[in-house]
């Protein structure tokens, strides 16, 4: 028993504590979502009543299903493409030595730090023009906002992946090169499979941050049918309505987590299993 | 080999090019003349989420009657800034729905046009609402609803309407000692204060924000925050604060003020018409009376807010926007529908008369707001909210009134210039 | 700009590599894929070119052609391998991140902001159209918009009915003339008139601009449209005079002269017209940042807290995330999938929603935290507790991220490595410190740096919880939990109207500080990076 405690038990203890910490506030949201009154201070940690009224209202009074679809499509496409773009760039930054490499990496980081609330003016400028010339990729379109999000594809996820690429021994590529593999083959056949867990993690993180983004989506998607979940939910609690719609808002928050959890479930296999360790290190 | 690759690319391109051309023809046509996109004109209206939903059927009706397409779009956050920025870049709407106190800023950015109402139309709009949308002698929009705060009380806990703030506090304290309620009053303050909700008390205690010039317009040069009158006013307010009677507390915020009342933790709530939906849902018997004044003080005048339709200066379809705002919004049907979506008193007298029979609250709101003064629409007002609110929160928390409000006054006058 | 659509995938193509010995012929499939994708790039470029040509946007076309040409050249020649991998993301980065940043930075040298958003012509139009009033004592007319020609293109005419005499007149830019043979509806609107085609609302709305611009000159003013069914006699109260570069009030004669350094029309008595325009102001926004005591005074303490916040958020989430990841990184722990799923939930909830929920949980009298633990702490009202609270919220929001990343990184570390060291007699802690941690850090250092950078500017974390508070009673501009970015936001947008130019100038200062710090931190990663090199 003592041995079990030392080897496994403490792991469960840490896990359970972390789960308790994580779930506390979510329980609060859960009870508010199922609370028929749906106001804030009437919500306690333990649900006081069970009612699906809030969910019902959310689905009938708002365009929630459409927001849901928009979010899943936009976040899905944008995160998939951006992981790919990021992996390409990370490969160059990790494996290739070229002039401006470190400056480039640092610049990627610094650009992310410019306050986004100031960039809104420039984004109106750019997409105002784009909407005039190519309305199919302008305001209120999936393509437009996906493009906008892809502008940030090189950034945090590039850094993340570069770090992981660095852990793959270079001897691996070198021996492949000797065997006559081109850099493209090295990238697709050797490196990408090795970093599959990282691709999965990056993909998930990109998915989550895209689905939660609302500063850009708020100005970009104004047709009620084209909104994303985060903008739509914000609209529910805007200003003085927060009291009134809190229950509906919490219901929406819970439902919003569903696609993320599903994506996580899908990717968990890659994150958890990876490839057999032996193969990784050759 | 490279040349060959190029050749193949070129060959590949030709069918794609053909396809591209085919597809592009339509695009060229549309971009040549943006308005030709639809066979008819298009009117784009921006509002917040709730009003956008209420407007939809009427916009559709206007569209079918006039053979035009009407698009309602909801801006969920930062409506005013988004409108100004989008307008400037040519991506804005033709009609904007928003509060009347935006007018000063919208005018200085050239974002809205004045509307020319006929004498009959003007006569049909409540006088104070019309005054609120008048700026520098011009009418800048058509009001459709007014709102002001009042004292809402739980008639089971407090059958009598308090005549003064002092009465209210002693009634509240009595309920508290009898354990019938846990709070004296629910008035939202929060950590950063709330100038809008505090204003009636501030006015009753003798304070003002901006003085008025001879013609009744606000005068930004005469700032009332930080002067001796405001210090005296806040000394009175401090007696209600956390170190005083505890009627005002920072823990009551915009998030929980209404639910404190609906949860019967407090018998009194100072709030606006938006609170009623919840109160009815909670099944509380209530009455609406004017915010009581301090004993021997000035009247506790609330602010009057007016929801307004604006014609955007840089809209693509201004003639149609003018038509919609001046000749369609001024009909009672739309105002009644918007009232049904959210129970705020309609600004059109005809619409008000139409709904007041079925809603006894309306007359009470109007009565509570009969002395209400329109929220100042001058751009300088934006400099007041934040410092004033924080000073309020600090004083309610126990800070020295004179020092705090004088510092706030300095900050405000510094940013007005 | 659309070339990017094809761009991403293009990257994937095997390029013939002449500079990488041994020369190798990539497979036929690879070549076909490459050709198809490049063809797609060209096709998209051509699609994008048509509207540009039609609108004679030659600069845009030039950029499009140049971008496409560079991309084709890049992928059809064997050199510049890193560029081949970087190009697709970079094209998007330039268009949607670098350009906005540079554009914003350029406004730091202007007075861009509320009241100064457009150019001078726009300001003049705004002043003139805001001054149009109905001529006192004049009438409002029923209006029908008509034309003498084709409804879509023919010259526009206003058919107006005098409400008193019921006289119908036709007006255009030349003036008003009476017509007699018109049919008038009960509301006074002309429904038919010989020689005129009445436009319906749909037709009229297509010519909106012409209708709004049409002013029919009459004595004392001009008849203008108010919508599509009413007209009024209006008069512009103010007019721009090119000769004196000033705006003149047509009744009082008062003038406001253009001041190009302020971007406003100013009268002799100092009165300024509200509608101004954007002008360059040189470095004055920057000097204002440096010289204004109310900004430079609290700057240092805000900066220190800002660093503490970013370090605390990054460090706290990393340590907790790693601890949990390590704990669950063992095949012996059952139900790891369930643990992972539950742990990732905080990250899956919309962050802004959870920030609002946390703020309510910290409420003094009604908050869950005080109620649960029987406390009466004014969390958001005291400097220390407010800072603790925001860090706790960040910890909750952020540690699942670190947990996930560390879990991913741990998979890449061969179990044999640490097991081998254990067999060598090293304890669990030592094998972690000597083997696992260094390997983890290789993978995670870049991430920690970027997480630091993100938290340094984490606007929502502060704005949606404390709004920067608590504030000292005598200074409402700078609060105890303010980050530089929330402070900037308040300085720039909290006063009377948004001041983008000023905000951009402050941002550039912050940008430089962060840039220097990041660059120093970044230098230290060089050694780690070459571990396997």
From TrEMBL, chain A:
Matching Pfam families: BPD_transp_1
GO MF annotations, alphabetized: ABC-type maltose transporter activity
Source organism superkingdom: Bacteria
ABC transmembrane type-1 domain: residues covered: 68-267
UniProt GO BP: maltodextrin transmembrane transport
Compartments, as annotated in UniProt: Cell membrane
Residues passing through the membrane, by range: 67-93, 105-130, 142-165, 186-208, 246-264
Keyword Nuclease: no
Any single GO CC term annotated in Swiss-Prot or TrEMBL for this entry: plasma membrane
Membrane-protein topology: Multi-pass membrane protein
Entries under Gene3D superfamilies matching the protein: MetI-like
UniProt record similarity statement: Belongs to the binding-protein-dependent transport system permease family. MalFG subfamily.
Protein name: Sugar ABC transporter permease
Taxonomic classification: Bacteria, Bacillati, Actinomycetota, Actinomycetes, Micromonosporales
UniProtKB/TrEMBL annotation, chain B:
SUPFAM superfamilies in the record: Periplasmic binding protein-like II
CDD domains: PBP2_Maltose_binding_like (cd13586)
Signal peptide extent: 1-18
Xref: InterPro entries: Maltose/Cyclodextrin-bd, SBP
Keywords: Signal, Sugar transport, Transport
UniProt GO BP: maltodextrin transmembrane transport; maltose transport
UniProt-recorded Gene Ontology molecular function terms: carbohydrate transmembrane transporter activity; maltose binding
Gene3D superfamilies registered for this protein in UniProt: Periplasmic binding protein-like II
One GO CC annotation: ATP-binding cassette (ABC) transporter complex, substrate-binding subunit-containing
Family in the record: Belongs to the bacterial solute-binding protein 1 family.
PANTHER family named among the record's database cross-references: MALTOSE-BINDING PERIPLASMIC PROTEIN, MALTOSE_MALTODEXTRIN-BINDING PERIPLASMIC PROTEIN
Protein name as it appears in the record: Sugar ABC transporter substrate-binding protein
Organism from which the protein derives: Paractinoplanes tereljensis
Automatic annotation (TrEMBL), chain C:
Family: Belongs to the binding-protein-dependent transport system permease family. MalFG subfamily.
Family matches, as SUPFAM superfamilies: MalF N-terminal region-like (SSF160964), MetI-like (SSF161098)
Compartments where located: Cell membrane
Protein's membrane topology: Multi-pass membrane protein
One GO term describing the cellular component: maltose transport complex
GO molecular function terms attached to this record: ABC-type maltose transporter activity
Protein's name in the database: Maltose/maltodextrin transport system permease protein
UniProt keyword annotations, A-Z: Cell membrane, Membrane, Sugar transport, Transmembrane, Transmembrane helix, Transport
Protein task: Part of the ABC transporter complex MalEFGK involved in maltose/maltodextrin import. Probably responsible for the translocation of the substrate across the membrane.
Annotated TM spans: 32-52, 58-76, 85-103, 303-326, 338-358, 388-414, 435-454, 500-522
Residue stretches making up the ABC transmembrane type-1 domain: 303-521
Claim: Protein biosynthesis is one of the keywords in the record: no
Origin: domain of life: Bacteria
Region Disordered, residue ranges: 1-25
Classification via Pfam families: BPD_transp_1, TM_PBP2_N
A biological process term (GO) from this entry: maltodextrin transmembrane transport
């Amino acid at each position: 028993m003592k041995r079990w405690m030392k080897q496994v038990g403490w792991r469960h203890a840490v896990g359970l504590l972390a789960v308790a910490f994580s779930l506390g506030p979510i329980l609060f949201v859960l009870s508010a979502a199922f609370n028929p009154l749906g106001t804030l201070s009437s919500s306690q940690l333990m649900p006081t009543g069970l009612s699906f009224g809030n969910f019902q209202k959310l689905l009938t009074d708002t365009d929630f299903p459409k927001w849901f679809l928009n979010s899943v499509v936009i976040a899905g496409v944008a995160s998939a493409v951006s992981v790919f773009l990021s992996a390409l760039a990370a490969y160059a930054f990790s494996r290739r030595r070229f002039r401006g490499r470190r400056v480039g990496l640092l610049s990627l980081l610094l650009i992310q730090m410019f306050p986004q609330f100031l960039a809104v003016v420039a984004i109106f400028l750019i997409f105002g023009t784009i909407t005039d010339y190519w309305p199919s990729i302008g305001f209120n379109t999936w393509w437009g906002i996906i493009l906008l999000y892809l502008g940030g594809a090189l950034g945090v996820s590039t850094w993340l992946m570069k770090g992981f690429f660095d852990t793959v021994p270079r001897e691996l590529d070198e021996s492949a090169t000797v065997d006559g593999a081109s850099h493209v083959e090295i990238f697709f056949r050797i490196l990408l499979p090795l970093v599959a867990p990282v691709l999965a993690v990056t993909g998930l993180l990109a998915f989550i941050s895209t689905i939660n983004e609302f500063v850009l989506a708020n100005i970009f998607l104004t047709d009620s049918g084209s909104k994303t979940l985060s903008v739509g939910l914000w609209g529910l609690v805007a200003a003085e309505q927060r009291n009134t719609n809190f229950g509906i808002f919490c219901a929406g928050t819970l439902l919003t987590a569903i696609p993320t959890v599903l994506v996580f479930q899908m990717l968990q296999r890659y994150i958890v299993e990876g490839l057999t360790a032996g193969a990784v290190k050759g | 080999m490279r040349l060959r690759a190029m050749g193949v690319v070129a060959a590949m391109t030709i069918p794609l090019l053909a396809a591209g051309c085919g597809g592009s023809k339509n695009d060229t046509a549309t971009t040549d003349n943006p308005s030709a996109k639809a066979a008819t004109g298009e009117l784009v209206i921006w509002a917040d989420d709730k009003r956008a939903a209420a407007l939809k059927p009427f916009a559709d009706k206007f569209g079918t009657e006039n053979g035009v397409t009407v698009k309602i779009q909801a801006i969920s956050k930062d409506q005013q800034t988004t409108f100004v920025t989008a307008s400037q870049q040519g991506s804005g709407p033709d009609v904007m729905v928003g509060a009347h106190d935006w007018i000063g800023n919208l005018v200085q950015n050239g974002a809205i046009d004045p509307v020319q109402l006929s004498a009959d139309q003007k006569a049909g709009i409540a006088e104070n609402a019309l005054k609120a949308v008048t700026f520098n002698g011009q009418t800048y929009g058509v009001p459709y609803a007014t709102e002001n705060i009042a004292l809402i009380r739980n008639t089971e806990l407090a059958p009598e309407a308090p005549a003064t703030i002092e009465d209210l506090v002693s009634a509240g304290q009595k309920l508290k000692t009898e354990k019938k309620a846990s709070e004296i009053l629910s008035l939202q303050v929060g950590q950063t204060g709330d100038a809008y909700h505090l204003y009636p008390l501030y006015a009753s205690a003798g304070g003002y924000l901006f003085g008025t010039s001879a013609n009744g317009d606000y005068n930004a040069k005469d700032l009332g925050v930080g002067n001796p009158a405001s210090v005296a006013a806040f000394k009175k307010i401090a007696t209600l604060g956390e170190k005083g009677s505890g009627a005002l507390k920072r823990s009551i915020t915009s998030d929980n003020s209404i639910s404190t009342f609906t949860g019967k933790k407090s018998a009194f709530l100072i709030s606006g018409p938006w609170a009623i939906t919840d109160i009815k849902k909670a099944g509380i018997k209530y009455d609406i009376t004017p915010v009581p004044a301090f004993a021997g003080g000035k009247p506790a005048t609330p602010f009057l807010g007016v929801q307004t339709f604006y014609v955007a200066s840089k809209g693509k379809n201004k003639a149609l926007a003018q038509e919609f705002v001046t000749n369609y919004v001024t009909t009672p049907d739309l105002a009644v529908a918007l009232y049904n979506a959210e129970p705020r008193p309609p600004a059109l007298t005809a619409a008000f008369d139409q709904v007041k029979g079925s809603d006894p609250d309306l007359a009470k709101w109007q009565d509570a707001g009969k002395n209400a003064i329109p929220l100042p629409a001058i751009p300088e007002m934006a400099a007041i909210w934040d410092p004033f609110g924080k000073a309020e929160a600090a004083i309610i928390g126990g800070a020295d009134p004179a020092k705090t409000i004088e510092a706030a006054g300095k900050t405000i006058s510094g940013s007005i210039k | 700009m659309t070339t990017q659509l094809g761009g991403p995938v293009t990257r994937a193509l095997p390029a013939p590599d002449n500079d990488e010995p041994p020369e190798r012929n990539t497979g036929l499939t690879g070549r076909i894929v490459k050709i198809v994708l490049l063809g797609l790039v060209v096709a998209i470029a051509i699609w994008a070119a048509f509207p540009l040509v039609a609108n004679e946007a030659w600069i845009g076309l030039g950029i499009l052609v140049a971008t496409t040409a560079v991309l084709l050249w890049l992928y059809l020649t064997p050199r510049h391998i890193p560029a081949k991998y970087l190009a697709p993301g970079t094209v998007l980065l330039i268009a949607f991140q670098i350009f906005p940043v540079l554009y914003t930075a350029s406004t730091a040298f202007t007075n861009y902001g509320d009241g100064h958003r457009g150019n001078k012509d726009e300001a003049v139009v705004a002043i003139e159209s805001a001054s149009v009033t109905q001529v006192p004592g004049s009438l409002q007319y029923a209006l029908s918009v008509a034309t003498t020609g084709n409804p879509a293109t023919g010259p526009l005419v206003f058919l107006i009915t005098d409400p008193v005499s019921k006289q119908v007149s036709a007006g255009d830019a030349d003036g008003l003339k009476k017509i007699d043979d018109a049919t008038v509806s009960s509301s006074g609107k002309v429904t038919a008139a010989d020689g005129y085609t009445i436009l319906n609302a749909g037709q009229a709305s297509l010519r909106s601009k012409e209708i709004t611009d049409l002013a029919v000159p009459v004595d004392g003013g001009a008849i203008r449209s108010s919508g599509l069914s009413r007209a009024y006699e209006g008069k512009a109260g103010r007019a721009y005079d090119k000769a004196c570069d000033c705006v003149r009030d047509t009744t009082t004669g008062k003038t406001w002269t253009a001041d190009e350094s302020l971007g406003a029309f100013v009268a002799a008595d100092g009165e300024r017209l509200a509608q101004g325009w954007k002008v360059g102001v040189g470095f004055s926004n920057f000097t204002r940042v440096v010289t204004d005591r109310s900004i430079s005074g609290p700057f240092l303490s805000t900066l220190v807290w800002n660093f503490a916040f970013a370090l605390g958020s990054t460090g706290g989430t990393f340590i907790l995330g790693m601890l949990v990841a390590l704990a669950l990184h063992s095949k012996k722990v059952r139900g790891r999938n369930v643990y992972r799923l539950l742990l990732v939930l905080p990250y899956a909830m919309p962050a802004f929603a959870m920030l609002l929920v946390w703020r309510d949980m910290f409420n003094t009298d009604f908050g869950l935290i005080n109620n649960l633990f029987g406390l009466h702490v004014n969390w958001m009202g005291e400097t220390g507790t407010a800072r603790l609270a925001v860090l706790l919220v960040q910890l909750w929001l952020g540690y699942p991220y670190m947990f996930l990343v560390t879990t991913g990184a741990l998979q890449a570390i061969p179990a044999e490595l640490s097991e081998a060291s254990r067999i060598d007699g090293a304890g669990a802690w030592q094998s972690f410190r000597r083997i696992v941690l260094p390997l983890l850090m290789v993978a995670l250092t870049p991430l920690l740096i970027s997480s630091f950078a993100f938290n340094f500017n984490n606007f929502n974390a502060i704005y949606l919880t404390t709004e920067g508070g608590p504030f000292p009673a005598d200074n409402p501009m700078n609060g105890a939990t303010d980050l530089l970015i929330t402070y900037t936001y308040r300085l720039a947008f909290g006063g009377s109207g948004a001041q983008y130019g000023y905000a951009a100038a402050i941002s550039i200062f912050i940008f430089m500080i962060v840039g220097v710090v990041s660059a120093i931190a970044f230098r230290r990663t060089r050694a780690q990076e070459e571990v396997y090199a």
